[in-house]
Design brief:
It contains eight helices and four strands, in the order αααββββααααα. The chain is mainly alpha-helical. It starts with 8 loop residues before the first helix and ends in a 7-residue tail after the last helix.
């Protein structure tokens, strides 16, 4: 753990709130946070691992002269925390910038225990809500609109995640308060 911060429920909640901070700004943020508090409380946090948080293909480097796992190099790991083992898997399978075959994601999740799969979808929805908020913040605050082209993919991921039954309260809130065209 070498002094790394814990990816606490509070931190996950703050990140999920980026959706109401920067995207669905007219929506009831307290109701949204209450839904997230209940969802995050369901996570099985008994096993904690290194979580890079920005773990996707663009931050992986192939090092062919090395052996085994050492062939894979990592970039952009300065935001690493200690957290749930499903988080970085979500980052890989629901990449905001590139498509991953739904069959690959399905095959990976078939090998996991039901509680892990539940946690995967909770964290996937959290991450996608966070990304929608971040990409809108980059546009509104920083004038960087090039990230908006990825929003349809992120919304597609979120819609898929929201089909997982435990996320029904969040799905209902999203349908009422956060339209995909950026209006709330």
């Amino acid at each position: 753990e070498a002094g790394l911060e814990k990816y606490s429920q509070e931190k996950l909640l703050d990140e999920a709130a980026l959706l109401t901070d920067w995207y669905a700004t007219d929506a009831n943020g307290d109701e949204y946070k209450a839904i997230w508090s209940e969802l995050l409380a369901k996570l099985d946090n008994s096993k904690q691992v290194l979580v890079l948080r920005d773990y996707h293909a663009d931050n992986l480097i192939w090092l062919p002269k090395r052996q085994g796992l050492h062939k894979i190099g990592l970039l952009d790991f300065q935001d690493a925390v200690i957290g749930h083992p499903a988080y970085d898997l979500v980052s890989l399978l629901e990449d905001a910038r590139r498509d991953v075959s739904p069959q690959i994601a399905s095959n990976v999740l078939k090998t996991k225990a039901p509680d892990f799969v539940r946690d995967y979808f909770i964290l996937a929805a959290q991450r996608n809500c966070k990304i929608i908020g971040i990409f809108n913040r980059l546009k509104k605050r920083d004038g960087k609109d090039n990230y908006l082209k990825f929003l349809p993919r992120v919304w597609a991921h979120l819609r898929g995640d929201l089909e997982y039954p435990v996320l029904a309260p969040l799905k209902n809130w999203i349908e009422k308060n956060a339209r995909e065209n950026g209006e709330s």
